[in-house]
Specification:
With about 350 residues, the protein is α/β, with parallel strands linked by helices. It has one domain: Aldolase class I (TIM Barrel). The strands form four sheets. It has an eight-stranded parallel barrel, surrounded by five helices. It has a two-stranded antiparallel ribbon with strand order 1-2. A two-stranded parallel ribbon has the order 6-9. Helix 2 links the parallel strand 4 and strand 5. Bound molecules: flavin mononucleotide. Flavin mononucleotide (FMN) binds next to strand 4 and helix 10.
Length: about 350
C-alpha cells in the first residue's frame, strides 16, 4: 500500500496543511508551575513542524480550567508570550499549529491549580478518580461547585478570550477538547450533569454547552479557525451515559451549519457506534480521524475518502520526523513510557530524526 494519499496538501477552513499527517494533542507536562510553556516545548514542537498540522497539547483557557500538574494555559500575558515562541518556531519551518483548549472542570486537584481558582462542574458531583500531583503524589479530585448560569456565561467568555489569546500568540486556530471527561464532556454525561435547566436532561440540552463554546470562539476568531475533538462513548474520568449513540448524534446535529474548520473524531469506545462513518455522513466539514492508526491504515482512510486527514499521537513521541519516515517507508521508533510526563528534555526532545541518527 502506498502512503501517497497522506502526502497531498489540504485546506481545512483557513488552515493550510501541506500533508494529511496531523500530530494529535498530547499532554506532556513540560510547562512550568505557572502553566507557562518552556523552551523545551519550543524545541519539541519545532522538531515536529513537518506535520501537516500540529494540535498542541490540552491547554487551559483559565485558571479555573487547570487540573493537572505542569500543563500549560493561555490566559496570562506571560503564557501568551511563551506560546508565541512555539508558534514562531513552527511557522519558521513551514508548519501549521492550533492549540487544544482543555478545561478540566471537575477533574482537578487543588495542588495543581493557582490559589484562588475554583473547581467547577455542571453539578456538584465529584469525579470518582485520582490524578497525579507533584506535591502529594496521587490525589483525589476536588468536589466541584455546581456552575450557576453566570459561571457558565463566564466560562464561555473565558474560552472566547482564550481563542483570541491563541491568535495573539500566533496559533493558526483552536481545537475544543470535548472528550476524556473534561468540562464539555461533563456537560454531555448523565452522571456529572444532573441539571434541570436547558443545559441538562435531554441529549440536545447536554450538548448545548459545547455548542455555545464553539459559537463564542467562532464569533471571536472565525469558525474557519475552530475545530472540535470528540470520542463517542468515552468513559474516561468517570463519565456515564446510558445512550452515547444518541449523545453523539445530538452533538453532530448541533454542529451543522457552524462551518467549523474540522471535526477531529476518535474511534468510538463502543462497538455499536461507527464514529467515522457517521461523522462522514453527518458532518459538513473536514474530518480528521484518530486512534491506533499505522501509516498504511491511515493512507487507506484518506485514499478511500473516509477521512481528509489522520492524526497520530504515540508515533509522534519518538518520531519527530514522522512525515519523512512515512514518506520514505522507514521503520518507526518506539517511545519510553517512563518519561511521558516527567519534567525535562529526557524522553521529550532527545528522540533523533533519521537524519540526526545517521549523522
Ligand atoms: C502521552 C499522551 C497524552 C495525551 N494527551 C492528550 C491531550 O492533551 N488531549 C487529547 O485530546 N488527547 C490526548 N491524548 C490522546 C491522543 O491524542 C490520541 O487520541 C491517542 O493516543 C490515540 O492515538 P494514537 O493511537 O495515534 O496514539 C494523549 C495521549 C498520550 C499517549
Amino acid at each position: 500500500m502506498t502512503t501517497a494519499s497522506l502526502l497531498k496538501a489540504a485546506e481545512f477552513g483557513a488552515l493550510r496543511l501541506r500533508n494529511r499527517i496531523v500530530m494529535a494533542p498530547m499532554t506532556r507536562s513540560r510547562a512550568d508551575a505557572a502553566a507557562v510553556p518552556t523552551s523545551e516545548m519550543v524545541d519539541y514542537y519545532a522538531q515536529r513542524a513537518s506535520a501537516g498540522l500540529i494540535v498542541a497539547e490540552g491547554t487551559s483557557p483559565s485558571a479555573d480550567g487547570l487540573g493537572y500538574c505542569r500543563t500549560p494555559a493561555i490566559y496570562s500575558a506571560e503564557q501568551i508570550a511563551a506560546w508565541r515562541q512555539v508558534t514562531d518556531a513552527v511557522h519558521a519551518r513551514g508548519g501549521q499549529i492550533v492549540v487544544q483548549l482543555m478545561h478540566c472542570g471537575r477533574v482537578a486537584s487543588r495542588h495543581n491549580k493557582p490559589a484562588g481558582s475554583r473547581t467547577l462542574g455542571p453539578s456538584a458531583v465529584p469525579a470518582q478518580t485520582e490524578l497525579f500531583t507533584d506535591v502529594a503524589g496521587m490525589a483525589p479530585t476536588e468536589a466541584p461547585e455546581a456552575m450557576s448560569r453566570e459561571d457558565i456565561a463566564r466560562t464561555i467568555a473565558d474560552y472566547r478570550q482564550a481563542a483570541l489569546n491563541a491568535r495573539a500568540a500566533g496559533f493558526d486556530g483552536v481545537e475544543l477538547h470535548c472528550t476524556s471527561g473534561y468540562l464539555p464532556m461533563q456537560f454531555m454525561s448523565e452522571n456529572a450533569n444532573q441539571r434541570d435547566d436547558e443545559y441538562g436532561g435531554s441529549a440536545d440540552n447536554r450538548v448545548r454547552f459545547a455548542r455555545e463554546v464553539l459559537l463564542a470562539m467562532s464569533e471571536a476568531i472565525g469558525a474557519e479557525r475552530v475545530g472540535i475533538r470528540f470520542c463517542p462513548a468515552n468513559r474516561f474520568n468517570d463519565i456515564a451515559d446510558s445512550d452515547p449513540a444518541a449523545t453523539y448524534s445530538a452533538l453532530l446535529r448541533s454542529l451543522r451549519g457552524l462551518n467549523l474548520a474540522y471535526l477531529h473524531i476518535m474511534r468510538a469506545h463502543s462497538s455499536r457506534i461507527d464514529a467515522f462513518s457517521q461523522a462522514r455522513a453527518e458532518f459538513d466539514g473536514a474530518l480528521i480521524v484518530n486512534d491506533g492508526f499505522e501509516p498504511d491504515s491511515a493512507a487507506d482512510m484518506v485514499a478511500s475518502g473516509q477521512a481528509d486527514a489522520v492524526s497520530f499521537a504515540r508515533h509522534y513521541i519518538a518520531n519527530p520526523d514522522l512525515v519523512e519516515r512515512i514518506a520514505g517507508g522507514a521503520t518507526l521508533a518506539e517511545f519510553d513510557r517512563k518519561t511521558l510526563y516527567s519534567p525535562g528534555p529526557q524522553g521529550y526532545t532527545d528522540y533523533p530524526s533519521l537524519l540526526e541518527e545517521m549523522a
